[in-house]
Amino acid sequence: MSSATTVPDAAPVPIRAPRLLGLYLLLIIIAAIEAFDGLSHAPILFDDMSKIPGPGVGGAIIKAYIASHPSLALAALAFATVGRLRYAIITLGALVLMAWLNFMPSVARHGFDFRGVSAFETPVRIIAFPLMAGCAIALAARGQRLGLATVLVSIPTLYSVFAVIAFGIGIILYGF
User: Confidence band (pLDDT; 50, 70, 90) for 93?
Assistant: First the structure.
């Protein structure tokens, strides 16, 4: 017998499916948009705190949202960049739930507003988006249907982007 030493085959390098690459790219884009939005609002925390409405618990919720938005968005961006798809989805879902919580002091103080554009926007932001975020978090935590979870957690950000674009088009067409 030969005493030649055999080297075991190296573990195969996992190749990401093209579908997962698309999910990573979508999550990176969504997290980057959210990070930009969160960082643009962060200076409010270092300004006069009397500008933040609502004393007590309502004001504390709004301040917690403003403080956590950039960190959650940057964490989601980091997770998506290094390939932690499930963690990025869960982090973006938490960001959507924090945004929902940010609306609650206004809803508690003024109730639901169903006049004009708010007739569509209020149910979407107060009811649909938190449910979608919860479903996305549950799917990602179980490691199931990550494509659906990515879409569910991306819709609130895309909705906000399209709302800003529609507002800009309205300003261009009709002015103030």
Answer: very high
Asked whether residue 11 is assigned to any structural domain, the reply reads no
31 alpha carbon, distance to own chain's centre = 6
What digits encode the pLDDT tens for the residues 6-55?
A: 555 555 545 455 667 888 898 899 999 998 888 887 777 777 666 666 66
Q: 89: Cβ–Cβ under 8 A, 6 or more apart, which residues?
A: 27, 136, 137, 139, 140, 146, 149, 150, 153
Half-sphere exposure of 60 (CA within 13 A, CB side): 2
In this structure, the dihedral spanned by the alpha carbons of residues 32, 21, 93 and 67, taken in order and rounded to 10 degrees, is -20
What three-state secondary structure class fits 78? helix
Is residue 97 within 8 Å of residue 119, measured between CB atoms? no
Structural domain count, the chain: 1
pTM: 0.79
Asked whether residue 50 is domain-assigned, the answer is yes
Burial of 162 (0-12, 13-18, 19+ CB in 10 A): exposed
